[in-house]
Amino acid sequence: MPTLLGEVKFRSASFYTIIASIALLGGVEAITHNPFYLGVFTLISIYGVLALSWDVLSGLTGYLNFGLAFPFGAGGYTAAILSTRFATPPTIAIIVGGLGAVGFGLLTGATSLRLRGHFFIMVTLLIPLATADFLNYALTEDGSIFGVNALVNNTYYIYNASLLIFAVAAVTFFAVANSRLGLVLKSIRENEVAAESLGINTSKFKMVAFALSNLFAGMIGAVYVFSNGVASPTDFGLLFSALPVFMCALGGMGTIVGPIIGSILLEGSIDLLRINYIQDARLLIAALLLLLVLLFFPKGIWGYVKRGG
Amino acid sequence: MVLATPISFLVLGATLGVIYVLLSEGFSLLYGVAGVLNGAYGALYMVTDYTVFALLTRFGLAAPLSILLALVFVALIAGFVQKYIAGRGKTTLEALFLTLAFAFVLQYLVQFVQCSSAFPAYCQYPAYVPVFIQGSASILGVSVFNQYLMADAVSVGVLVAVWVTLTRTRLGRSIRAVSQDTVAAALVGINPARVVVVTSMLAAVMAGTSSVFLASYQTVDPTIGWSVLTLAFAIVVVGGLGSLVGTVIAAFMFAFIDTYVLLYINPLLADFVSLLLLIVVLLVRPQGIFGKEAS
Amino acid sequence: MDQLLVVKDLKKRFGGILALNGVSFEINAGEFVGIIGPNGAGKTTLFNTVSGSLKPDSGKVVFRGVDITGMRPSAIVRLGLARTFQLVKPFLNLSVLENVALAALSRRRREQDGLSPEAAALEALRIVGLEARADSPASQLTHGELKRLGVAQGLVLDPFLLLLDEPFGGLSAEEISIVSEALRERSSRGVSFVIIEHRVRELMKLVSRVIALDQGSVIKVGTPDEVVNDERVLEAFLGRSSGIARSKGN
Which helix (H) or strand (E) holds C32? Predict the structure, then answer.
C-alpha cells in the first residue's frame, strides 16, 4: 500500500539522532577490541532492538505489550532448533527465528489484541511466564536443555549481527512511525472506536504492528541465544519483557528515538557501572534513575526535549 | 510431606484459601478505591518478609514484636508510595508504571542490602525465616502445621476487622464512597487522595500479614514479589474487579487448584496452571465471575 | 437499486431498557431524511446498530442489497455508509488535517480521484470552513469547530449514505449556515443523508421526509409538516424536550 507510506521526512532531528546512535554503536568496534566493551555494546544493541520493537507496537498503538520476552524467546528457540537439528547456518537461523516469532505471535496476537487496557497488559505479561513454566516442567521431565554450538569465539559476528538488526529496526520503525501507517497506528492509540468508524480496520493494523514488533524481537532473540550458547527458559524471563518497556518510558514512548536513548542510558548504566562498591548497586541505581525520570519527566527524555525545542 | 488423599486436599486447600483471601482482598480493596493496579503490591509483601526476617534473626526480637514492627514499617512505605509516587501519576497508566518502577527499586534495594560488597557480613542467600509456631495439629485426620492454622486465625481476624471498618466506621464509609464515585465523594467533603493513601496502608497490612506466615514455607527471595502480584491480580480478575465477594470465591478456587496441582500432578506446574486459568478467563470473560460488564 | 438502506425490525436491549423495539424503515437513494424524537427515544442506538458500532439483538440492516447486520464498522464504511457522532471525540494529539486525512484514507473514490489523502482532507475542511485550522492540534478546537471537524470527516469519506448525529448541536447561526449549505450541496450531487437533530427548525429546512421515534419505536413517518402536526408526535415531545413546541409556537 504505497498510500500508507506517504512522504517520510527524513531530514529531521529525530532521524539524525538515530543515525548518530547507529554510528556511536558501530564506532565502538573501530575503537576497541576489548571483548568486554564489545559485549556491553552488543547488549545495548540487543536491548535497543527490544525497546524499538516495543515502541513500534505499544508506543504507537497504545497497546502496552508487557510480554516482549515471548517473541524474544520464541525466536531464540527456533534458531537454536534449526542450528542444532538442521545444521542451519546462523544468519539464516536468525532470520527464520524472526519469522518463527511472527508465526507464534499470530496465535498470541489474534487472541490478546482483542483485549484492552489493563487486561492486555496482564495477558501479555503472563504468556511468556507461562511458557517458561511449561518449558521448565517439560525440560525437567526430558532431562535436556536445548543447546546451540556457541559462537563465543566470534564476538564480532554477534556484535555485527546485533548492530545490523538494530540499524535496520531503527530506520524501518522511524519510517513506519512517520508515515501514514504510523498515523493510522497512532489513531488507534488516540481513539480506537473513532478510527474504526472512519473506515480503519483496527484489528488488521494492530496485527501488522504486532508482527513487525515480533519479527525484530525474534531475530534479536536468536542473536542473544547464539551469544549465550544456549536457549533456555530464562529467555522468556520477566527482565526481557520489563526492561524494554522501562527504556521506552525513560526515553519517551512512541518516538522511536526515545527507546534508543532509554536503552543506551539504562543498559549502559547497568553494565558500565562496574566500580567497587557501586557494582552491586548498579541495578538499584538504574531502577532509581528510572523512577526519578518517570516522576519528573513523565513523557520521557525525548518527549521532554521535543516539547521544549 | 502429606499423603495425597481427598481429605488432605480439602483441608490444605481450605487453609491456603484463607490466606489467599487476605492477600487478594487487600489488592481488591486498593483497586476498587484507587482504580489503579498497584504494581508494588508484591514488592510490599516481599519487604515485609525481609523485615520480619531481619528483625527475627539479626536483631533477635520476638516473633509478635517483629511482625508488628514489620507491618507498621510496610504500611508507612505503602502510604509514602501512594502519596508521593503513585499519586503523582496523572493517568492510571502513569501510576502503574511508577509503582512498577518502585517495585524494582525495592527489589534491588533489598538485594543490595542483603548481599553486597558494602555489607559483607550480612550476606545470606537464600534466606529462611524460621518457623516460629512449632508443631502441627490434626484436622479431620490431616496433619496441618500450626503456623498455617495461626495464619488462618489471624487472616480471619484481619478480614473481620476490615469488614467491620468498612461497614461501621466513618473511614469505611469514605472508602466505599470513593470507590463508587470519586467526584461525588469529593463533593460531600471527603478527600479522595487521603482516603486512597489510607486504603493503601490498609492493603499493605493485609498483604504483609499473609506474607508473614507464608514466609516460613517459602525461600525468602527478593523476586517473590512478582509471583505474589500475579497471584493477587489473577484472583481479583477472575473474581471480578470491584467485587469483594467474587474475590473470596476466586481465592479459594486458586487455592484448591494450586493444592491439587501440587499434590496430584507436579509441583512445577502449579504456577503454569494458575496462569493458564487466568489467561483463559481474561479471554473468555474479562470481567470475571462477579464483575460488572466491561464498558 | 432504489432502496439504499433497508432497516428491518431492529431490536436492542440494554439490561432492563429496550432501546430499540422493532424499528423498520427504508431510505431511498438521493433522499434527505430527518429523525426526531425525545431524549432516550433510541435515535443514537439506531445509528449505532446500523453503522456497526453495536450488534442488534435481532433484525436486519441491508445496505445497497448487502446484509450488513453485525459487520464491523470499518467494513461498512468501505461499503459506502458512514456516520458522525453526537459527541465528537477526535484524535486529540493529532492535527485537524491529520484527523480528516485518516478518514480520507478510506474514502470511496480514492483510487479514481488522483488526490492524496491530505489534499482530499483539505478540500473537506474548506467546505466546512475549517481550512485555516488545518495545522492546529485537534485539542485546541472549540465545540463548534469540533462538530464541523466531524462533518468534514463524514464528507471526506464520500459515502453513498451519511448518517449525521446532531450535527448542529451547539453551533452558532453562522456555523449552522455553513454546514447546511455543505450538506445541501452534496445532496444535490446525489449523496443521501439521514440526520438526527433536536434543532427541528433547521432540520425541516433540509429534509424531505421525517421519521419520528419514541421509546424505541417508529411512531410517525411523513413529510415535515405531517410529522410536526401529528398528535402522537406532539404527545411524545410535550413535557420532555420542547423543540417541536417551540418551533410550532414560532
Answer: strand C32-36
Report how far residue B233's alpha carbon sits from residue B216's, in angstroms, rounded to the nearest whole number.
23
Using a CB-CB distance cutoff of 8 angstroms, which residues of chain C are in contact with residue A186? 91, 93-94
C157 contact A CB<8A: yes
In a domain, A267, yes or no: no
- What is the per-residue DSSP string for C136-195? SBGGG--HHHHHHHHHHHHHHT--SEEEEESTTTT--HHHHHHHHHHHHHHHHTT-EEEE
Q: Domains of chain B by range and CATH?
A: 6-130+145-284 (1.10.3470.10)
| Contact flag B108-A284 (C-beta cutoff 8 Å) | yes
Helix (H, G, I), strand (E, B) or coil at B59: coil
Domain count, chain A: 1
Q: How near does any CA of chain B get to the CA of A137, in Å?
A: 6
pLDDT by residue (tens digit) across A95-115? Answer: 999 999 999 999 899 888 888
Q: Tell me if C105 and A186 make a contact (CB, 8 A cut-off).
A: no
Position A298 in a domain: no
Residue A103 located in a structural domain: yes
Beta carbons of A187 and C90 less than 8 Å apart: no
Does residue C73 sit at the A interface (CB-CB below 8 Å)?
yes
Predicted confidence (pLDDT) per residue in B191-239, tens digit: 888 888 888 898 899 888 888 877 766 667 777 787 788 888 888 888 8
- State ipTM: 0.87
C107-143: per-residue pLDDT in tens? Answer: 988 888 888 899 999 999 999 999 999 999 999 999 9
| Contact call for B104 and A294, based on CB within 8 A | no
Q: Is residue A281 part of a domain?
A: no
Q: Give the separation between CA C196 and CA C44, rounded to whole angstroms.
A: 8
Pairing of strands C58-63, C66-67: antiparallel
**Contacting residues of A for B107, CB less than 8 Å apart:** 287
Contacts of A194 in chain C (CB under 8 A): 85, 89-91
Nearest to A277 among B107, B117, B275 (CB): B117
* Residue B214: C-alpha distances to residues A112, B11, B133, C149 (Å): 33, 16, 12, 59
